[in-house]
Amino acid sequence: MERHVLGLSGGRDSAALAVYMRQQHPALAIQYFFTDTGKELPEVYEFLGRLEGFLGQTILRLNPDRDFDFWLKQYNDFLPSPQTRWCTRQLKLRPFEQWLRPMLEAGETIYSYVAIRSDEEYREGYSSKHDKLIVKLPFKEAGIDKPGVLEILDSAGLGLPKYYSWRTRSGCTFCFFQQKIEWVRLKEQHPDAFEEAKRYEKTAVENGSPFTWSQGESLEELEQPERIKQIMQEHEQRLARQRSKVQPNPLRPDSEPLDIDDLYGKAKVCLACHK
Questions:
Q1: Quick one: 149 and 211 in the same domain?
Q2: What are the helix (H) ranges across the chain?
Q3: How far apart are CA 12 and CA 4, in angstroms?
């Protein structure tokens, strides 16, 4: 027996892949799923709801059997970090593996569709370790790049998730991959989530965690008015420099936002959270 699955992060690329597979391979019975950490942006849930409307089917929610607070205690109150990504491992990958395990043990062949674009490198660390779990990269095979992804979402009437107006990456509200400007905007857009992140950080530091959410400073330091002003000025300078390098596209005037990655360099983010 064969099964087809496609994981959604609440981000742009995986949503475009879901649309693409629905349009190009309508005969495939694909199970779309979203692993919900319980710490997602509200805009993510809104976007998933719109995507369900387009797909005409419910997106399966995979919930971790243990929440963030449980795992934080297991890791001695040490915050997750780029060096120790226990959040992705325990809250994203573990529920996915638990869901698939009975199917694989029953001898099913599972095709997992991943939204790696043609203009991205594929990181082998995300490839399957099971011979019956086969990773497929439709965008790579079809030569679909970032402009192609935007075109797919536009033509489907979905557009971008609403958080793209202030942040260009999905994931938890307190994701450590956020840049300084994204923390500033989280404080503006979702002050309660920012305060929750501060509480986690304070507890972690008190228990000896070597990491803060944002490299080199605590959120309490980052949110000081003078520091916020400095971060915003630095961001505007980066934006101006990047815009001066970009060739305008007459077919898409002002409709393609500059990604945070375009401005600050590509981070080694996790596919399960950010695609």
A1: no
A2: 12-24, 42-55, 68-74, 86-88, 94-105, 138-142, 146-155, 180-189, 191-206, 219-222, 225-245, 260-264, 271-274
A3: 20
Domain span holding position 221: 180-265
- Residue 80 falls within a domain, yes or no? yes
For the entire predicted model, the pTM comes to 0.88
Query: For the chain, how big is the Rg over CA atoms in Å?
Result: 19
pLDDT tens digits, residue range 203-224?
Answer: 999 988 888 999 889 999 999 9
Output the six-digit token pair for 38.
Answer: 């319980």
DSSP code for 163? G
Q: pLDDT, tens digit, for every residue of 7-37?
A: 999 999 999 999 999 999 999 999 999 999 9
In degrees to the nearest 10, what's the CA dihedral of 95, 97, 103, 105? -130
| Residue 163, number of CB atoms within 10 A of its CB | 23
Are 43 and 156 in a shared domain?
yes
